[in-house]
Design goal:
This protein has four helices and no strands. By secondary structure, the chain is mostly helical. α2 packs across α3.
């Protein structure tokens, strides 16, 4: 019994050390494993839908926490990535997006 407790304590110590020193890798491994299991259980498209909605929620929560204008930031991001013909809201000056009004 004593040996089992020592092994358990050693494993917990190693896991905590990994978490402290390589937090990003641990989170990436966990997220990848969860996505892989979800794809096996639910299928590719359902899993991609859930991942997309989670990322959208993460983005909106981040915008809310930073007290920024989420709609304005979304328009500016789309203006950087979409071709000009899809940007109805863009002004005549193509280098200035013209979304933010000076007060």
């Amino acid at each position: 019994m004593r040996l089992v407790r020592q092994m358990k304590a050693k494993i917990i110590e190693e896991l905590l050390s990994l978490w402290e020193n390589h937090r990003g890798a641990c989170l990436g491994l966990s997220a990848g494993a969860l996505i892989a299991i979800a794809m096996l259980i639910f299928g590719f498209w359902q899993t991609m839908f859930v991942v997309f909605m989670a990322l959208a929620g993460l983005w909106l929560g981040n915008e809310y926490d930073s007290k920024a204008d989420a709609w304005l930031d979304l328009k500016e991001t789309l203006a950087r990535f979409l071709p000009v013909r899809y940007q109805r809201f863009r002004g005549t000056n193509y280098t200035d997006y013209g979304f933010r009004k000076e007060r």
